[in-house]
Amino acid sequence: MSEQKISAASGPVAAAPVHRDPLALVVRFQSLIGLVVVAIGGIIFSPRRHGEILFLNPDNIANIVRAVSETGIIAIGMTFVIITAGIDLSVGAVLGLSSVVTASMMISGGFGLIPTILAVLVMGIVFGVIQGTISSRFRLEPFIVTLAGLQAARGLALVVSGNQYINISYGDGPGLAPPVFAVLGERLFDNTVPVATIVFIVFAAIATIVLNTTRFGRYVFAVGGNERAARISGVPVSMVKISVYAITGFAAALAGIVHAGQFNFGSANDGMGYELTAIAAVVIGGTSLFGGAGSMVGTVAGTIMLGALANILQLNNITPAMQLLATAAIIVLAAVLQSLVRRREGLGR
Amino acid sequence: MSAPLLSVTGAVKRFGGVQALRGVDFDLKPGEIHALLGENGAGKSTLMNLLSGVYAPDEGTIQIDGKPVRFNNPREAQAAGIATIFQELDLVPTLDVAANLFLGRELMRPGGFLDVPAMRSEARKRLEAIELAIDPASMVANLSIGQRQVVAIVKALSYASRVLIMDEPTAALTVGEVERLFDIMRKLAASGVGIVYISHRLEEVPQIADRVTVMRDGRVAGVTEPHAPQAELVRLLVGRPLDELYPERAREAGKTLLSLRNASFRLAHESAGWQPPTGISLDVKAGEIVGLAGIMGAGRTELLSALYGTGLTGRWEGDVAVDGRPVKLDSIKAARDAGIAFVTDDRRGSGLMLRMAVGLNLVMSVIRRISPFGLMSARRQADAVKQSFGQFDIRPKNPDIAVGALSGGNQQKVVLAKEILGNPRLLLLDEPTRGVDVGAKGEIYTRLRQLAAQGLGILVASSEMPELIGLCDRIVVLRQGRNVAEFIGGVDEHTVLDAANGREA
């Protein structure tokens, strides 16, 4: 990733005093640096078999990027929301709801693949629009509105599924899903690149362009940076806020479809805690919870870094408990670095 | 005879129980620069917010070209050609200068993409048009307050088609910048734009204005021509001759309470826009009120907050002594232990718990004293509250209502009374009468003088020169964090301003 490419791609963030403060430089690229550190650590501490570094085994790499694709998609959406100084806690539940609706539309409803996918994506958007509208219209904290949304989505998912796994079987005819849907669990390009990862990366690329080169993206930064200034400048603040929740809703629905395709079932209880993993990835990626600053590239790097860290710990048979502690330490480190830079730049706490 | 471009008739605006505007008439002709003067709390800002669409009036009408209009938001006012320069806080600190200038009206490339290079080069042109060397790509958070003010001005200038409202645009500018700004304003006026110029720098009025409207207590106190004698303007501003507002000065001062000798505050990290105290020498004696004067950014607030330990992280160098004993003053606890109390310039933000009752706010500084064994004693609390209400005429006389419901003047009395309860020996005041009506001002001045007579030392920073001149025994002028001059109270305002601006007297 060249310096020049970053500054050309991202107007607002590139304006940060990249060269003035070495600490700011570290924070700006903290997730990329973290990713490199984790990768080097992975190579050093990787178990070896017949001299081969297991961490670098193509299957292992594919596994890492496949495993993070769902939370990655969610984190991409979450980045927009957090840059506006908002939060969306409903995404994990919306993922569960979407997986259930995807499965039941195809299996019990007899809908085709395209109508199903479109319907689920629209459902995610509508869910986000409702949350954004309630939050904006009644001036409620997004935290509380999306906490309610989380409960609502889980409830709806249980209603739709009847609290049962909805298994997806493939084939032609009623009660069967089109076989092409199973591609989400496969790998392309000589069985190397997981399709779920391709969805994640394509979505990330589009989101990066939207955030950094469009008027909408600029408004997202403005609303989070100083809402009053944005309003006075004629930025449609409510529309921007509603839109970012529509984006997280869309992302969660997309992740839910990928989930159903990868695991061949819909389950109302899946995606639990994904919202927190996604928020962690966004924060590690250098996006400020105070709003107004953030980076999509950082979110992608943060997502992959968390996945790679979990992977190397697993390869060494380190317990899930230790994995949680390691993740905790990294989140705190990322947040402390950001706080130091904010203080230096005179932005307050 | 040109018809008014913009006129306001009978405007009334209330905020809760506070009546900010009580029937205001105001008009602006094309090509006119109309100065709007008033003390803080007189209603200037509320009137400005009505014109710029931030609030709608409760009663009265706004007309443009004789047609009634009603603005529901700032965008509608802008569409009608009314541009407003708000204070620097209305920029987005995390965006760069060009992005701020074009916020809401971005230049686009085909396909819906931002045209960042075009915006940067256009921004550069506009900044250069008023001969300002600010990089359009620098983030606003890294600009000084003065630079941010200029960016806000350039932003408003770029879409002012008919009316430009400027709220104290010169407060943070250097003398040269003010001259350039006035040139630009004259050019704009010559092209037919009407300009409302809000200020409380009286000396600027004859330089720039065609007409002057003076507001007081939510009403128009008078409309006059700009070359009216200053005494006349002051009379309109404060509603009575200047000398009646301020109590008599102290006869003699006691022993030295605070002594700074070549004292500097070394920041742990440099911070743009925060001027640390640099080589300051000053004394505050018991019974004395000492004023801190200086232009915005001279380091007044920074000196007070560094003394109280609420500023940025850093440490004092040089000699800092309280009561003749060297002290470190590196934390709030150190300051309070030394008998120092501090009243912030931002009572709503950092002075009061707005939703909590007046009584609870009052005892906040003496919680320890009124809660033996950690249990709040209702009796001791009531005693403390009674003491405060005895000292300050806080209205309504009810300690149980939320302090946020009080008027600005009464809130300020609560903040002051709260700190007085702690029996400090040295009181640091930052803008003690900001947003306070004239009546409450007079009462606050009188109380401060009485407290000083009882042996309290007071160090007060203010941007209102008449306040410093009228209230203080001595005035210390700061520039770039240093004390550059010192005057006896009652000194001529121009002398102090010249020193503050670095001009030879």
Q: Which helices and strands occur, and which strands form pairs?
A:
The complex is a heterodimer of chains A (349) and B (505).
Chain A (H helix, E strand, L loop, with lengths): L2 H7 L1 H4 L7 H7 L1 H16 L2 E2 L2 E2 L4 H10 L1 H15 L7 H17 L5 H25 L4 H20 L4 E2 L19 E2 L4 E2 H19 L1 H11 L1 H6 L4 H27 L1 E2 L7 H11 L11 H20 L4 H25 L5
Antiparallel strand pairs in A: 1-2, 3-6, 4-5
Helix pairs in contact in A: 3-16, 4-15, 5-15, 6-10, 6-11, 6-13, 6-14, 6-15, 7-8, 7-9, 7-13, 8-9, 8-13, 10-11, 11-13, 14-15, 14-16, 15-16
Chain B lengths: L5 E10 L2 E11 L4 E6 L5 H8 L7 E6 L2 E3 L4 H6 L2 E4 L11 H5 L6 E2 L3 E2 L1 H14 L15 H13 L5 E5 L7 H16 L3 E6 L5 H4 L2 E6 L2 E6 L5 H9 L3 H4 L10 E12 L12 E6 L3 E5 L6 H9 L5 E9 L2 E2 L5 H6 L2 E4 L3 H5 L6 H5 L4 H4 L7 H14 L16 H14 L4 E5 L7 H16 L3 E5 L3 H7 L2 E6 L2 E7 L4 H9 L4
Parallel strand pairs in B: 3-10, 3-11, 6-9, 9-10, 15-20, 15-21, 18-19, 19-20
Antiparallel strand pairs in B: 1-2, 1-4, 4-5, 7-8, 11-12, 13-14, 13-16, 16-17, 21-22
Helix pairs in contact in B: 15-16
